[in-house]
Design goal:
The chain is α/β, with parallel strands linked by helices. Helix content is 40%, strand content 31%. Its main location: membrane.
Length: 167
């Protein structure tokens, strides 16, 4: 008797969520002022710029190239570094911490600028006996970190809504 009730409640919950228009995050939180913007970077084809562009498009942000009366998201500084966290008994590096820091700014058409930044850390176990596999794994981790940094920058753009409307 208990199993059919659970099934009924689960089905009712799924139908209620799908019927009410519930959607996962798809850009609805981004302020209207930032729904159309221009993305600038010193290297527009860098991995970080491409990750940022991809995340903006996933959040339904319209990216333009030539307009001057739209907000500008500028990737000012992108820095990567790795630090040794632990070593093997033989003195070789065992574990590294990968660090990605991104500094950006959102400049509104009225020339008001808002700085935003993010920092992403990951731990990477470095085994020199499997150098080729670890190199490929490290590249995947760096790409994942760039995607995470781009998502965090978008979240900080959402948080700008209060500053934009407060002025």
């Amino acid at each position: 008797m208990l199993k059919p009730i659970k099934t009924l409640l689960l089905t009712a919950g799924v139908l209620a969520i799908s019927a009410c228009g519930f959607h996962f995050q798809n850009g609805e939180l981004i302020p209207q002022e930032l729904q159309t913007l221009k993305l600038e970077s010193s290297d527009p084809y860098s991995d970080m710029a491409l990750s940022m562009r991809r995340q903006l498009q996933l959040n339904n942000v319209n990216l333009v190239e030539d307009k001057t009366d739209v907000p500008v998201l500028r990737l000012n500084k992108i820095s990567t570094k790795d630090q040794v966290v632990s070593i093997f008994k033989q003195g070789r590096e065992a574990e590294k911490q990968l660090i990605l820091e991104v500094e950006a700014s959102v400049k509104l058409p009225n020339k008001e600028s808002f700085p935003i930044s993010t920092k992403v850390n990951r731990t990477f176990f470095d085994n020199s006996r499997a150098a080729l596999a670890k190199s490929a794994e490290k590249d995947v981790i760096w790409q994942d970190m760039r995607e995470q940094a781009a998502r965090q920058l978008i979240n900080k753009m959402v948080a700008l809504q209060h500053q934009i409307h407060g002025n």
